[in-house]
Amino acid sequence: EAGKSSNVKVVVRVRPLNAMESSGNHRNVVRPMDERVVVFDPRDDFDADSFIPNLRFIFDRVFDETATNQDIFHHTTKTIIDGVLNGYNCTVFAYGATGAGKTHTMLGNDKMPGVMFLTVMDLFKRIEEMKHEKTCEVAVSYLE
What we know:
By secondary structure, this protein is of the alpha+beta class. It has 2 domains: 1-65, no CATH class; 68-143, no CATH class. The chain is built from 5 helices and 5 strands; from the N terminus they run E-H-E-E-E-E-H-H-H-H. The chain has helices spanning 19-23, 69-75, 81-85, 102-106, 115-129; strands at residues 11-13, 30-32, 37-40, 55-58, 61-63. Its main location: cytoplasm. ATP binds at residues 96-103.
């Protein structure tokens, strides 16, 4: 429901086509309408009898092809660090098909660090800032 808050947030990142896809005249079958809605628009020869065109799906946040890992971090995991520092557990879960961009988003590279790196850096920066107020213990699990 619109405007209702939840402990679980679902965000979508639409990645740009890669070089092979672009050269092969492929196209994205999902496109962001705004910051919350994605439209599913399959190829033209899709079986129209079993499909409703331009299906819309609503999420807590939608990132288009121009979004950076920094953008994803600022609008997702950066906002949960206060809760972590107050003793709450949190989980960040990336899901998608092979080649969807999960590894790029979560791990990144030297030029564009991923959400995991950015989160850990911000978390430890915040811990350092409050070291005279409280003692923190951090435990992290990573599963692929």
